[in-house]
Amino acid sequence: MAGCDMSVLKRVLLVLAGLFVFVVLLQLNILDIRVTGNFISKNQDSAIQQFEHRVWNEHLTNLSVYKGGRLLTEDNLENIKAISIEHCRCQRFLVFKCDSSSSCGGLADRQKGIVSSFLLALLTNRTFVVDMTTPCELNNFLLSNIYNWSMCTDFLKTVPKTNFIELKYVNGNTKKFLNQVKSFDFDRNWTKQVVVLRLNAYAIDGIRQHNQARTRLKWLMNITNEEAIHLVLHTLFKPNQRLLKDAVQFYDNKILGRHLVCSHIRIGKNPSIPEDSTRPRGYSNETVIFDFLEKYDDVRKYVIYIASDSEDIKRHAETRFKSYIKISRTIVHVDRLGKLKRFKKEACEGLYTALLEQSILTLCDTLLLTSSGFGTMAAYLRGTSDNLFLFHPKAQRILESNLTNIQTIFKFL
């Protein structure tokens, strides 16, 4: 396309911009950092930025998961990035789409689709865009980090629909697509300027086996799927100020230097989410899980936090454990809103609650999971196998595990 080549100056500016963004907070693994209530406020943007830089430096110094560079570099992204809004017109696109026109799945399903779609964008040399608008705009709470996935959003609205192809792999045809990925001729079949993809599953293995992956995705060849998920989500997203502030205040005001023990307990259909699907018998055993948490019920040393799709579970924990802490927010399944579909503000706050709870799980010193994509994704974002435990639904007992074994035991798509 004439006039679309990047000048040397633009390339230099892009590198400088990337270096600036690199030091911004990505993961909410906030360590023993203290801030006052006055330090973070709506009118102190510069203070927020300084705080984010300080937290990020703390990550680089103290978290082994980041040593050696745990984010994708500008070189990894060179072939798909747009350096300016004007440059968008020169690009081909892969858009991850999630709107109210069809089911997208819950938060973890969407994160799976985003990871897979981003890797497909890299495989096909297409600029990647996230277009998630249900129950509200994703960028209400999550912002672009190393890679700017929203820069070309407005430009895409000007592209003729004849230049679009929309593909949906959410329900029955998902497995067929995943099986085809490794041998699929994308150059021949994806000829439109814009490919819109609705997907809620991992396609990492197929992408890694594709004959173009060794040249276009070299970094993917020698890492695990769990590391790839971690890298992609952290490269794409960072919390907005509200999400960061609430996570900091949670940690600062409630943890107080103690060991944070967390569990995510997925129940399925229950009074809190009546629209959810029914889970098999023994899917989560509250008695076994609570007995495990009992040994941490010492307010001098530990804090217990439980994320769940059931208010009953949280109320039970509050009455049983002295060291239990909570956040008071309404539980919402972002894809099964029921009556909340009529109340956009409340539904949007439900998405925020899900993101906040998942972020809190990434802070945990000890993490116990039941079979759920939501908790599993938090473990991948957390990025370490240290003190990771799984409730095995068949054995009905709790096993100490690692990130790789989550998929083996829970068998997610």
Describe the structure.
The protein is of the alpha/beta class and 413 residues long. The protein has 2 domains: 8-25 and 71-239, Rossmann fold (3-Layer(aba) Sandwich), CATH 3.40.50; 241-410, Rossmann fold. It has 16 helices and 12 strands. The protein has a 6-stranded mixed sheet, with helices on both faces.
Explain briefly what this protein structure is.
The protein is α/β, with parallel strands linked by helices. The protein is 39% helix and 14% strand.
Q: List low-pLDDT spans.
A: 6-43, 56-69
SS-derived structural category:
alpha/beta
CATH class of the largest domain reads Alpha Beta
User: What composes the largest sheet?
Assistant: 6 strands, mixed
List the secondary-structure elements in sequence, H or E: HHHEHEEHEHHEHHHEHEHEHEHEHEEH
Sheet with most strands: strand arrangement: 9-8-7-10-11-12
Percent of residues in beta strands: 5-15%
Fraction of residues in helix: 25-40%
Q: Examine the secondary-structure arrangement and name the CATH architecture of the largest domain.
A: 3-Layer(aba) Sandwich
Tally of DSSP β-strands? 12
